[in-house]
Specification:
The structure is a single chain. Helix content is 44%, strand content 11%. It is an alpha+beta fold and 91 residues long. The longest helix is centred in the N-terminal third of the chain and has 13 residues.
């Protein structure tokens, strides 16, 4: 994994700060949705991910233990199991 430069981190944070709030748009999502988050994610913590899942009607939620912000790399087996369960669930 490449390290983020201070300038790159600042640019990313500035972009996130300036983007419009789209929380209200979550209620318009009408496709199967899974919100998946690492239990140790300090950048986008589980509490925020739970809010996203609650705002999307019928969304699934999975918290991956022993994983942080890059859960697919940190716990690939657990992420794969969660995705397989989600994809196998009839809708």
């Amino acid at each position: 994994i490449r390290a983020t430069t201070p300038a790159g981190a600042i640019a990313a944070l500035d972009a996130m700060r300036e983007r419009p709030d789209s929380v209200a748009d979550l209620a318009t999502i009408d496709v199967p949705t899974l919100v998946l988050v690492g239990a140790e994610d300090s950048l986008t913590p589980p509490i925020g991910a739970r809010r996203l899942a609650r705002a999307i009607e019928g969304a699934g939620f999975v918290e991956i233990e022993d994983a942080g912000h890059v859960s697919a790399l940190e716990a690939p087996d657990a992420v794969t199991r969660a995705l397989r369960r989600f994809l196998a669930t009839p809708r």
